[in-house]
């Protein structure tokens, strides 16, 4: 579903569309709820209670909200019902350890690459497969296949150069992390960027397998760059639930690098210089991006481009 609006710049107006919930999202919410309950307990009565409560919530959904905003409410409900603040904790640690082991060899591939930045971008996008909101069970062999595919797939070199130039021009860069495990692959990209300009942002408290400050410390990210949390338990960047200190940092940044589908869903309509890095794992996201499921995505925020064009026209 898309909801239309208008953007005004120096008296000029332009219609834009904001990504909202599709009906296709609702079965995914229910599946996530059941997966979370099963991770936390073997009690089938609790599984049934979780599903029933989520179905009640789904019946009264505000379809104008983003999928992560609804996901945030659902996972708060689940954590309350099952009495576990972080049902994915053990899986997050497992994928952190797995990714750290895999990235020893991958770091060497980046080092000897003819284009280290492009190789690191490909690997950072490959890491986005570790998304337990989409699929709870991810085998090591599946991650290895995604890495191979991402290293050999066609990729727009012009986009890489535009990204390189944007990083070079920026003075304050926010890197919005996505998932535990995935942040190890993000390290490979961050190592190719000016670390002194970068602040990495993780979630303020657990939601699905999204990375928190505990995960950032575990994989050594806090030793490389400044790491802050956004004060939120939303599976994306839901500004109204983020802390004021994060919102101030977001406003002050002149470049944002946003990982994953949740950040795309919550920020694609924001007037900000943002580059989205993700794998399109969901048909709804792929349709919105105009690509096939499985596609590697390095894309500048079109909303920001639209505003820039309007300003040029008005001058």
Might you state the CATH topology name of the largest domain? Rossmann fold
One letter per element, helices H and strands E, the order comes to EEHHHHHHHEHEHEHEHEHEH
- CATH architectural name of the largest domain: 3-Layer(aba) Sandwich
| Proportion of residues in β-strands | 5-15%
Dominant shape: globular
| Average pLDDT metric | 89
User: What is the name of the CATH class of the largest domain?
Assistant: Alpha Beta
Q: Uncertain regions: pLDDT < 50 for 5+ in a row?
A: 1-18, 307-313
The largest pleated sheet is described as: 6 strands, mixed
Span between termini:
34 Å
- Helix/strand-derived category reads alpha/beta
> In order across it, which strands form the biggest sheet?
5-4-3-6-7-8
How many H/I helices?
A: 13
């Amino acid at each position: 579903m898309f909801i239309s609006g208008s953007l005004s710049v120096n008296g000029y107006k332009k219609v834009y569309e904001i990504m909202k919930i599709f009906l296709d999202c609702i079965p995914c919410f229910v599946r996530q709820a059941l997966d979370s309950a099963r991770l936390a307990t073997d009690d089938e009565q609790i599984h049934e209670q979780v599903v029933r409560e989520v179905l009640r919530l789904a019946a009264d959904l505000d379809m104008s909200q983003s999928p992560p905003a609804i996901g945030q409410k659902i996972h708060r409900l689940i954590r309350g019902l099952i009495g576990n603040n972080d049902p994915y904790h053990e899986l997050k640690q497992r994928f952190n350890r797995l990714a750290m082991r895999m990235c020893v060899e991958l770091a060497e591939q980046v080092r000897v690459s003819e284009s280290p930045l492009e190789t690191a971008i490909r690997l950072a996008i490959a890491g986005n497969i570790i998304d337990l909101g989409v699929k709870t069970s991810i085998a090591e062999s599946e991650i290895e296949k995604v890495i191979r595919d991402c290293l050999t797939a066609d990729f727009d070199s012009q986009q890489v150069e535009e990204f390189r130039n944007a990083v070079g021009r920026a003075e304050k860069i926010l890197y919005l992390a996505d998932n535990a495990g995935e942040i190890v692959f993000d390290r490979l990209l961050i190592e190719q960027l000016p670390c002194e300009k970068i602040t990495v942002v993780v979630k303020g408290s657990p939601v699905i397998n999204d990375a928190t400050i505990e995960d950032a410390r575990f994989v050594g990210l806090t030793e490389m760059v400044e790491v802050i949390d956004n004060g939120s338990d939303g599976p994306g960047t839901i500004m109204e639930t983020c802390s004021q200190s994060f919102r101030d940092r977001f406003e002050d940044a002149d470049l944002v690098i946003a990982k994953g589908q949740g950040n795309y869903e919550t920020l694609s309509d924001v007037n900000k210089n943002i580059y989205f890095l993700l794998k399109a794992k969901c048909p709804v996201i792929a349709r919105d991006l105009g690509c096939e499921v499985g596609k590697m995505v390095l894309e500048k925020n079109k909303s920001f481009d639209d505003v820039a064009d309007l300003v040029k026209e008005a001058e």
